[in-house]
Specification:
The protein has 165 residues and is α+β, with helices and mostly antiparallel strands. The chain contains three helices and five strands; from the N terminus they run E-E-E-H-E-E-H-H. The chain has a three-stranded antiparallel β-sheet, with no helix packed on it.
């Protein structure tokens, strides 16, 4: 029997009225080493708490050996996990059981037709056995409006870039 994990004290209500961004959780991951001359990340990714520690490798489709995780896989995992968590919260608030929900994120890396640069495309597929499309659709829309990853995809994300001294 698995131990029940306590639910975080988060809500979908607009219960914050601050004037600026207020971080609730912060993490840092450093990527170093590897061969990056080809414009693709390789090397090692390590989180500041040591929990994430893995080799990054180019996928076979981009000329790599495919024997390691790549940034698109990590992004897909983060996106799917975030949307899954948000949808689960919304489902509980609607008195529906989120236990059967699964979220599949497909991330495609490709060229931007406008300028030839690179872009990511994200496709999410939600499987929720036992819930009708009529029940699920408004909850999917609410989760889309609340999930930090989908908000990032629609709005962009404030980003700073600084050279360490």
């Amino acid at each position: 029997m698995t131990e029940q994990i306590p639910l975080p004290n988060l809500s979908t209500e607009k219960d914050f009225d601050g004037e600026s961004f207020s971080a609730i959780y912060t993490t840092t991951v450093t990527v170093s080493g590897g061969v990056a001359a080809h414009g693709r990340a390789s090397g090692r990714a390590q989180s500041s708490d040591g929990v994430l520690d893995l080799d990054l490798r180019m996928p076979a489709e981009l000329g790599g050996d495919g024997h390691g995780t790549n940034p698109e896989q990590l992004f897909a995992a983060g996106f799917a996990a975030c949307f899954h968590g948000t949808l689960s919260l919304v489902a509980r608030q609607a008195a529906l059981d989120p236990a059967a929900i699964s979220v599949e994120a497909t991330v495609a890396f490709g060229r931007d037709p406008e300028d030839g640069g690179y872009l990511l495309r994200i496709d999410l597929v939600v499987k929720w056995p036992g819930v009708t499309p009529e029940e699920a659709t408004p909850l999917l829309e609410k989760a889309d409006s609340l999930c930090p990853y989908t908000r990032m995809a629609w709005r962009g994300t404030p980003t700073t870039i600084a050279l360490a001294s």
